[in-house]
Every structure is written in structure tokens, then in C-alpha cells.
Amino acid sequence: MIIDLHVHTWPKSQCSQIEPAELVLKAKEIGLDGFCLTEHQALWDLEDVKALAAGHGVKIFRGNEITTAQGDILVFGLEKDVQGVVTARALWKDVEEAGAFAIAAHPFRGFKTFGVGQLEMNLDQAAAKKVFKYVHAIEVRNGKVSDNDNALAAQVADKLGKPGTGGSDAHLIQDLGVHVTIFEQDIKDDAQLLAELHAGRFTAGALP
Predict the structure, then answer these.
(1) What does each of the 208 residues of the chain score in pLDDT, given as a tens digit?
(2) DSSP secondary structure of 90-120
(3) Domain harbouring 33, CATH code
């Protein structure tokens, strides 16, 4: 099952230009099986998601992108309303208590400007970034960063033994599906998505 795990819509994410109804049609057009609404500090109401998905044959899941002092974290299965900038450690406590799943989003965003070499950061130093202590997985394919940023994230995930995910981080409709996560099982709802994430039955990839 092919899912874009990282998508933003207007007006819940003020930085996005995508109308929610557009997503469903675009997802169907490009061959996505589903996508996750991961707004900034805002979790969609379950009934609103069901209404948006109704009759289209595309699965819609709910997540959240939380801003922490150590970097942005995608969270699935956490119903708590988290506002403001928190620490990754504090968020991790909430994640663990809820049995949720946390992913370090675009952990090396900005390296396209400076480059790892210029910053004199080796792989060990990159892997020592604090946010990685407080996540289950690492986003290794993100549509808003450079190939070098994604490559470094993949190397760190491999070094730390953490699984990698893919998501478009779409803020424009044409960006949907540029990176995806491919799940081994069919997934019908948020609870099953959470279970498959914890089981690790997925890989980061691209649409065929």
C-alpha cells in the first residue's frame, strides 16, 4: 500500500496552498492508495476526515507535525493537543504514554545551503543529533529538502538502526506523492496505520 505520510492543507497549515478536496482527486489521479494529513500543531477531527474521504476510494489518515526545540517531529496516534514549541523529550513522554509513533521530519533541512563538508560534520556527529533519541523512525525521503539532505538522513537511519519513511511534505498540490512510504499490508484506518508503523513493515520509496 502506497501512502504519502506527510501532507499539509490550507487553512489548518497556514503555510500550505492546498485545499483538502484537491488532495483526494490528485491522490487518485497519481495512484496513491492514501495520504496522511499532518498539519502543524493541528490534528484533524476524525469525522471530518471520514467525510473528506467518502466515496473516493482513497484512504486518509491523521497525524500531526509538532515543533520541538530539537526539530520537527511527525506523530501518529497522539490525540493530545500540543501547542507552542516543546522539547523532543517532553513530546516523547506523551508519545510513549499514548503508544503513539514518532518520526524525525526532514532532520537535516538546510544542509542544501551549507553542505555537510562545510559544516565539518561527520556521520557520527550527524547521528548524535538529540532529536534521534526521541523518535522511532527517521524521514529519509522528504520532498522539501535536497537529495544530499535526504541521503544524510538515510545514512543516519542506517547507522542508528531506525526505519526510514517517505513523504512529500506537500504544501502545493503538484508536490503530492513525490516521496511515499510503501507498506506491506493494506491499511484501513488510523489504528492499523499505527500498528504497521510500530511493526516496521514499510520502506521509503517512490510511486511506480
Answers:
(1) 999 999 999 999 999 999 999 999 999 999 999 999 999 999 999 999 999 999 999 999 999 999 999 999 999 999 999 999 999 999 999 999 999 999 999 999 875 444 444 455 789 999 999 999 999 999 999 999 999 999 999 999 999 999 999 999 999 999 999 999 999 999 999 999 999 999 999 999 999 9
(2) HHHHHHHHHT-EEEE-STTTTHHHH-HHHHT
(3) 3.20.20.140
> How many domains does one find in the chain?
1
Q: Which three cell numbers stand for residue 132?
A: 534521534
Range of the domain at 90: 2-205
What count of Cα atoms within 13 Å lies in the side-chain half-sphere of residue 57? 7
Pairing of strands 71-76, 64-68: antiparallel
Let me know: does 182 contact 1? Beta carbons within 8 Å. yes
pTM of the complete model? 0.95
